[in-house]
Amino acid sequence: MNKKKKQIIEAAQTLFIKKGFSATPIQDILEAANVSKGTFYNYFSSKTECLMAILSFIKEEVIHDRHQLALGKSSSDKEVFVKQIAARFHIDKKHNLMALFASLASSDTAHQELKEFLNQQYLEEVTWMAERICDVFGAKKQKHAYDDAVTCFGTIHLTSKILMDINKTEIPIEETIYFALGQIERANLHPPFLQADYFLPYHQIKDAGEQDSKIELQQTLTALNSKVDKLKNDKLTYYHHFLLEQLKSENPNLFLMESVMNSYQNALLHTELEDKRKYIQILYTQFMEEKRENS
């Protein structure tokens, strides 16, 4: 991360926790970070975007730590899974996120962009949990993975709160996680409540290098070829195959892709493929950002 950007993020995080998000003017961030207003707006369009950058930075730290914990270990190793879940709680504690979120609770959080960002992060975490439950407990958990993920997260958070309320904070979070996993290990006798398709837009892109996001987007569009053709929508078919051709190119025309992607998204509305729009947009946005950063 750029040094100046990191200075701003660290200063803003400290001030948001100390004074509250709403009560912290941008001028205070500038003074604490020792940067000019122009430098701030070179990286962030608003205070809200700065907060989102803080949360993204913390999320990347969690992803990194989880990856490190998994190196050289079996994906079905339950102990690794417990440590990976605990990593989120340890990192949140290190960054004092509880105090940060408390300041948000008392502030004007009507910003739709921030709400959507927080929801996205939460649902990505649920999706990660569901995938790891399948890794650890096997295919038998596939149908109920999202039910189990929600149950597990709910159990961890509520149990942690109760332990704090009764002053049992010395109990390690790992023990609470083992307890929560124990609740989902028994066989699921009911039909699944949360369907996997609900969470399609929240799957994280693995190994998010430029080539990986490009391949992921290309594979996603390729998988829809037959369904797009069956819709017999000439405009949709043209946009779809144009984007695929650009993705196959070593030097895609980013300007044309931007225009066509907007039209493609609109063409998907009110079709049986409408639920794929958000996931495609997420992949496309990441691909474009990485292309621009590397240009």
UniProtKB/TrEMBL annotation:
Report the residue ranges that make up the HTH tetR-type domain in this protein.
2-62
DNA-binding span(s): 25-44
State the protein's name. HTH-type transcriptional regulator TtgR
Give one Pfam hit by family name: TetR_N
GO terms classed as biological process:
negative regulation of DNA-templated transcription
Protein's organism: Oceanobacillus oncorhynchi
Ordered alphabetically, the record's keywords are:
DNA-binding, Repressor, Transcription, Transcription regulation
Source organism, top-level taxon: Bacteria
> What InterPro entries is this protein classified in?
Homeodomain-like_sf, HTH-type_Tx_Regulator, HTH_TetR
Molecular function per GO = DNA binding
Transmembrane stretches in the record are none
**Keyword Transcription found:** yes
